[in-house]
Amino acid sequence: EGKRESEHCAYMNPIAMARARGPAPNSGPTIQDYLNRPRPTWEEVKEQLEKKKKGSRALAEFEEKMNENWRKELEKHREKLLGGNESSSKKKEKKKKEKKKSNRVSKIFSFLNFSALGLFLFVI
User: Fold this and answer.
1) CA atoms within 13 Å, Cβ hemisphere of 106
2) For residue 77, what pLDDT is reported?
3) What is the pTM assigned to this prediction?
């Protein structure tokens, strides 16, 4: 019962079927066409290579120039930032010093107040 009646069919050899159909229609250029295509002479190939080298040299010079300009721009920006940082860092240092001074002063006053309170209590 495993196979149904519709699935009973003879094996068809694909190679024999292809031969029966005959040669395939020509769909594109053949190998012979590729081999017979016009090709440049050795001199023309050398000329083309020289042109490519010149083009790439010009491109390399252009890129180098752009890199130099970019480096200069970065340097300017860096200097501007560093200049700004120095002044801001000096301001920060001043603020820190002021805080230290104010802390010292407040500590001294608190100490004096505490000792004065102790003296006051001692007197009473």
Assistant:
1) 6
2) 94
3) 0.29
